[in-house]
Amino acid sequence: MSTVGTAPRPRPELERLPVYRAGRPPADVPGLVGHKLSSNENPFGPLPEVAAAVRDALALNRYPDATAAPLREALADVLSVPVDGIVAGAGSLDVLNKILAAFAGRRAGGTPDEVIFAWRSFESYPISVGLSGAKSVPVPLTPEGRHDLDAFLAAITDRTRVIILCTPNNPTGPALSGTELDAFLERVPADILVVIDEAYVEFVREPDAVDALATVRDRPNAVALRTFSKAHGLADLRVGYAVGHPDVIASVQRGAVPFAVSTVGQAAAIASLNAMPRVLERVEAIVVERERVVAELRSRGWVIPDAQGNFFWLPLGEQAEAFADAALDAALSVRAFPGDGVRISIGSPEANDRVLDLCGHWAGAAA
Ligand SMILES: *Cc1c(COP(=O)(O)O)cnc(C)c1O
Description:
Layout: H1 12-16, E1 35-36, H2 48-56, H3 69-79, E2 86-89, H4 92-103, E3 114-119, H5 124-132, E4 135-140, H6 149-155, E5 160-166, H7 178-187, E6 193-197, H8 212-218, E7 222-227, E8 240-243, H9 246-254, H10 263-274, H11 276-299, E9 311-314, H12 320-329, E10 332-333, E11 335-337, E12 341-345, H13 349-366
Parallel strand pairs: 1-10, 3-4, 3-5, 5-6, 6-7
Antiparallel strand pairs: 2-8, 7-8, 9-12, 11-12
């Protein structure tokens, strides 16, 4: 019964997905050490106790715990939340995909659910939403690079199932305040799940910023999404988690692939949690560098949105790609979003100094 010329066809959603572009490595420039500032990675290598935990966990022939119970128990302790209110995954992106698989897709009759998120925001959102079968509803940021929560409310329909908030927003930098989040959640129908992506929460210094864990405690339709990839510097080990109401978390866990977090990843994450004061010292060093770089650039006339993550945003519009090319010539890789702007991660002081030099030359060239 085979028909010549037919081949397996992927779901139509797949062909419409935007392609994820990973941050480029820096170019080789003779005489210059390259710095990758395009993926918001932590410039610090692993803490000695984390490296030791990884070495001790290398029993590679055994499967890890199916639901990452050791890690979830450690997190429950540290965060003072119940273990069954935590789901872990291979990075927070895996957890987000699980959340969407559980709460958004297509209903009977084929009508797509709707998922609202800010735009521009994390590049993965439209990919994850598209893959789930649901429809992306992007809501433009304000000119200051902030979420426009009134516009979110106006975008809610009876097909809205999930709302994703990114705070601080990647790539623009501003964080939501607790006051604006509370006022927003008061007006969001209780049957819509609100995912608060806090990938950079440790870097936030705005006093009134969102406290997603407190929010999640009070509101069963809110979920906090967190990662070990940024502040903990464990991007390569792929460990993330969500905290929410146990009923919501149980639904997310039900659709999850078991064994998502390796024993090695769990051991590293637990060791890092146990070394939190030293993790936060490093975070503080990055924040100090962020404040130095952003203040210096602003004093030279650059317009930069509030930077609450380990990165900042240059709204360069049509010049974004040219700027990223100039950075490559200086052995720096930064992230250009063509027609929009450039996101630059905070790196070592030396890397950041070179960014300041580059911006100095760029302003000179533009003048
Ligand atoms: C980096 C980042 C993540 C983290 O992804 P992992 O899968 O945990 O590495 C999640 N959300 C945002 C907004 C990010 O920038």
